Each structure stands twice: as C-alpha cells, then as structure tokens.
C-alpha cells in the first residue's frame, strides 16, 4: 500500500493554489492523498507567515501534528509555505520534530523531499523564492464548481507594514496564454466561477507587456464557454482604471464585485504606509466605481492602530466607514512585522488600543451590513448551492455578492426538491442573521 499524504494549507487562496500544485506532483508520484491529514502517514503543513496571528495559527497547527507524531499516529511532518520561507532556520530550531522545512522556491521538489524524509533524512531545503513555479497542473481542493486563478505572484508595492515582498519576491505575472489555457481546463472540469487572485491583480501584465493587461485578460476569459462568474480580488486602488471599470460594467460574466483594500483613509497614515492617495481621492474613486458599475459590491480591508494613528485620525477613519457604507469590510489591528519599515516607526500603539479600534470599526460595519441585508428581504436573488447544513436542516450557498470563505452565506430551504452543490437557484430572502441571509427557494424562478 502506498504511503498516505495529507496536507493542511493555511492562509490565503494564493497559498492554496501553491498547495494544489504540490498535491498534483505528489499524487502523480504514486502517493495516496488523504483529506484528513490526521489519518495520514506524512503530513505537509503549508503555512502562512504574513502577520502575527497567521504565524501563531501555523505554529499551533504544526504542534498538533507533532503531538500525533509523538503518539505514533503519523510518521513524518513537512513544513512548507510562507512561514518556512520567512523563518527558514528558526523554524527548524523551534520545531526539531519537523522532518523537513522547505522554502517556497523548492515547492517543485516536494516529491523528492517526501522520498528523503521517508528514507530517514532530516531535510532543510531552501532556494530563491522567485523559483516558485507560477504554472502547472493542480489537484483542485475547492468545491468543484469554483476555483482560484492565480494570475501573478510577488509584489512591488512595498507597503511599509507588509512582509510579502520579502517573502514572495518581486511581482511576476503569468503569461496570458498560460492563464487562458489553465482557465479552459478548469471550466472543462466543471468550474463555473473563476476567482482571480494575486498580491495585486490590477498590476497584471505590466512586467511582461509593459502596460496593465487585466482588462484584456478579463475580456478573453469572458469568451470561455461554460464559465458563468468571474470575480476579482485584491485590486490596488491606484490601478483601478476607467478601462477596467468599463469591462466590469459591460461583461455579463464578470460579477459586479470588487475587493479594494484601502487600509486607511487618512493621507498622513497612507503616506507612512507607503501608499498613495488620501481621503478625498478615495472618496472620488469610490464614487466613480459606483457610478461606472451600478450595483457593484465593494469589499475593503482596513488597518487600525498603525504607528502615528491619533484619536483624531481614527475618528476620521470611523466617519469615512460610516459615509462610504462598504458592502463588505474586514478590519485588522496593526501587526508590527520584523523587517518592515513600519515596525521601526515612532508612535507605536498598545495592542489593546489597536484591537479596540478594530472592534469599533467592525461594530459599525455590522450595522451597515444589517441595513443592507434588511433591504434584500422580500427580494429574489440567484444563489449557487454549496451544500446542506444538517443542523439547520437547510441548504446554503452564495450569491454573486459573496466571495467564498470571506463573505456571508445564504441559507435556504427547498421543500420537496433536492439541490446539489454547484446548481444555481433563485432564492427569495425572508430574514437575516448577522452577516448571513435566510430564505426559501423560488421554484418558479429556478426552473
């Protein structure tokens, strides 16, 4: 019987795509992939190392498998991903029970690493992070009807708080023909929704073609038969062009949804973050987006407690959030990451202050979300079925307004009719619960 290999991939969807490429190589080499990593012989933890909470989650997860290894339930532990890249030797020292620590530039060698650890070696394998392959076959780990399409890796924006450039390297786009081929294969295999991801999707193509090529990529993806939804994540505000907005407004397959992380609205804070713009420019951009793409769902991400954020600057941010009424919003307390310029800045705030301010923003957003959800009660919307909730005795899914894993869900009953994952149905909304909606299938509209 072949050895069973399980993988836990943490952090973002970009890391998940890397994991899927490793899984393909492992399966092709003849190993048995197993969904429950706790039942595997060899466990790979594909880590995130972006901010403190992500690092802690990665370490906690690894030690859970260390305990299983000490009990004799698993044989080997391999650590890959961003934590292994960022803290190469430190990870090996902190976790001597790990049989291998592998930087992201060595993902291509994962089968060799497995062979070496099963042969009794302890492996530390590090190489240039930019050797990470941006192409290749994948084992799809998402639900069958949607998949992530990673259009680039790395980042050149150099935000002062962010460790991504030091972890992932410079911005590198995937050639358009490669992406179109990958998208065609995914759709052929049943994918109906493609979610475009990168550290900065709006920069796509600039390094290869000398200009921003995201609009052209979107137009070509829209030509793929069988594809229903195309979704954009990680759009950098400065590069949201009129051309991009026109494509979003005119192409039916592109869902009217944009993830636009702005981080803050105060001009001085943004400058300290090494980001451009200020409150006036952001208000103007958001106004233009909503005018050019009517009904668009805007998601953003904010950071509270950045060095130098006074009470006045925070109050301005809170007022901005109330005024803008974003449809989706995530807020994080600033995390001082070693090796970043922001970590050395004056004006560092206590963790309690940073967390309290983040809580205030999220409480504000909860009220905004409740208002917007309340406006949907009585309306019928299209939902893609994701599964069945045994406890609630109902189905659940997402609308075009919801990205998987980060946004809310729609729970719905379907009396007398069984639904299957991936099926698009019409649901009449009857109620709401926090960020989620509740309804019943509209059988007439779903025919």
Distinctive features:
6-stranded parallel β-sheet, Rossmann fold, pyruvate-formate lyase- activating enzyme, 15 helices, 19 strands, OB fold (Dihydrolipoamide Acetyltransferase, E2P), 3 domains, 22% strand, alpha/beta, 447 residues
- Give the overall pLDDT as a whole number: 94
Largest sheet, if any? 6 strands, parallel
The percent range for helix content is 25-40%
What do we call the CATH topology of the largest domain?
pyruvate-formate lyase- activating enzyme
SSE class: alpha/beta
The number of helical segments is 15
Number of extended strands? 19
Task: Give, in spatial order, the strands making up the sheet with the most strands.
Answer: 2-1-3-4-5-6
Q: How far do the termini sit from each other?
A: 47 Å
Tally of discrete structural domains = 3
């Amino acid at each position: 019987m072949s050895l069973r290999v399980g993988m836990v991939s943490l952090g973002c969807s970009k890391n998940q795509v890397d994991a899927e490429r490793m899984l393909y190589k492992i399966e092709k080499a003849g190993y048995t992939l197993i969904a429950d990593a706790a039942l595997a012989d060899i466990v790979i933890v594909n880590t995130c190392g972006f901010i403190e909470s992500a690092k802690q989650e990665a370490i906690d997860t690894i030690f859970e498998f260390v305990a299983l290894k000490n009990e004799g339930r698993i044989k080997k532990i391999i650590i890959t991903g961003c934590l292994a890249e960022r803290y190469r030797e430190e990870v090996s020292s902190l976790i001597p029970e790990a049989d291998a620590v592998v930087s992201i530039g060595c993902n291509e060698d994962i089968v060799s690493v497995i062979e070496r650890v099963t042969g009794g070696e302890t492996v530390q394998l590090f190489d240039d992070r930019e050797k990470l392959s941006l192409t290749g076959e994948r084992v799809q780990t998402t639900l069958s009807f949607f998949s992530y399409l990673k259009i680039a890796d790395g980042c050149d924006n150099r935000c002062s708080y962010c460790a991504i450039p030091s972890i992932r390297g410079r911005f590198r786009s995937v050639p358009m023909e490669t992406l179109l081929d990958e998208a065609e294969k995914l759709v052929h295999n049943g994918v109906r929704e493609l979610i475009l991801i990168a550290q900065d999707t709006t920069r796509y193509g600039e390094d290869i073609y000398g200009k921003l090529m995201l609009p052209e990529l979107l137009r070509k993806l829209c030509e793929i038969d069988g594809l229903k939804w195309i979704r954009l994540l990680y759009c950098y505000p400065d590069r949201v062009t009129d051309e991009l907005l026109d494509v979003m407004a005119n192409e039916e397959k592109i869902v009217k949804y944009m993830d636009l992380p702005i981080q803050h609205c105060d001009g001085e804070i943004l400058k300290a973050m090494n980001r451009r713009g200020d409150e006036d420019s952001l208000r103007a951009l958001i106004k233009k987006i909503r005018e050019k793409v009517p009904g668009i769902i805007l998601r953003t991400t904010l950071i509270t407690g950045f060095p130098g954020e006074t009470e006045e600057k925070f109050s301005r941010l809170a007022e901005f959030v109330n005024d803008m009424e974003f449809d989706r919003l995530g807020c994080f307390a600033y995390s001082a990451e070693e090796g970043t310029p922001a970590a050395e800045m004056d004006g560092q705030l206590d963790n309690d202050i940073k967390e309290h301010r983040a809580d205030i923003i999220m409480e504000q957003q909860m009220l905004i979300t409740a208002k917007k959800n309340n406006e949907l009660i009585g309306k019928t919307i299209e939902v893609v079925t994701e599964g069945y909730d045994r406890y609630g005795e109902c189905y659940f899914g997402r609308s075009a307004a919801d990205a998987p894993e980060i946004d809310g869900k729609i729970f719905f009953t379907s009396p007398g009719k069984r639904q299957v994952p991936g099926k698009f149905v019409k649901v009449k909304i009857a109620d709401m619960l926090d960020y989620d909606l509740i309804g019943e299938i509209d059988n007439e509209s779903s025919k």
